[in-house]
Structure formats: C-alpha cells, structure tokens
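pasting for the record
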Amino acid sequence: MTDQAAMDDWFCREVLPLEPALMRYIRRNWRVPEDVFDLTHDIYALALHGVRNGLPEHTSGYVFAIARNHLIQQARRSQIVSIEFMANLDGVGPPPDLSTTDRHIDARDELRRALAGLSILPPRCREVVQLRKVEGLTTRETAERLGVGVDAIEQQLTKGMRALTDFMLGGSGKIAWPARDKQKARRSE
C-alpha cells in the first residue's frame, strides 16, 4: 500500500505537469469538446485509485494508458444503451448486494467531504463547479448562464477542481491566485 502523502506528492509532482499534453490527447481522440475537462478529471481519479498498491515507474505511460482505456470505455458505453432505455428496466436484474455497506459508508463520507470542500470555494468558482459537475451543464451553457466567456469558465473549473482535489486529499483546499500574490508583494514593498 502506498501512503497518502507519497501519492499526493507523486500526483502533484508527476501527474499534474502532464495536464496540457493529456488534454490535447483527449481533444484529438474525443468527439465532444465540452467533455475534455470531465474526462481529464476522471482520468486523474482513476490514476490515483490505481497507485494505491504502488507508484508506477513511468508516470506518463501509466497516465496515457489510463486515458486511452477510459476513452475506449466511454465510447463503448455511449454506443451500448441509452439512459432512457435503462429507466424502463427498473426492477430487472438481481437485487442490490447489501453486503457492500462499507462501500456505501465510504461513499457517503467522501460525498460529505466533497460538499465540505465545495463550500469553502470562492462563490463564483463554487457556482461554476456546481453547474458543470453537479448539474451537468456544458462549458458553453455555463458561460451563457453566468454571462462570461468560455475561457473564464474553464479557468474557474480548473482552479476549483484542483482546490477540491487538494481538499479531498487532506489539504487546505485553498485556491492559489498567483496574480493576487504578486500584487500583495508589490504593495508591501
């Protein structure tokens, strides 16, 4: 088992710098441009889950293999069955496995932690994350609703998801605003 501190360090040091290349890879291989950020964060979650048993030797190969497999899996899912069809199949299939209560409890704890992390985000950032991740709006729809540009939505979402990830991994969940830090330094001189 890899300890949490080593996983956090590995993620920040080796995975986050791959983000621009990973997003370019997803844009080239996925048909819906609005899904790029969601897919990127799904891949981060899968990568973090996978390193619980040990850190990989070649991080970029590991992350891009996860990305490739995740895109393939998402494409297969989108071709198999529509959600409306599944809604008509209520009650079909085996009953839920009640022996998985530990997983349910863990999921509820993670949800509570995510909500706590969401509540400490700045108001605009929190609103963007909620519209994109909770309500499922596209980047363009979110931008139109808030009356801002698509680039602003992408920046707010990236900062918000990074802060939320930091909080979920035991950090403070604070957003780093480099421009504000520079302005404060200038004022103090």
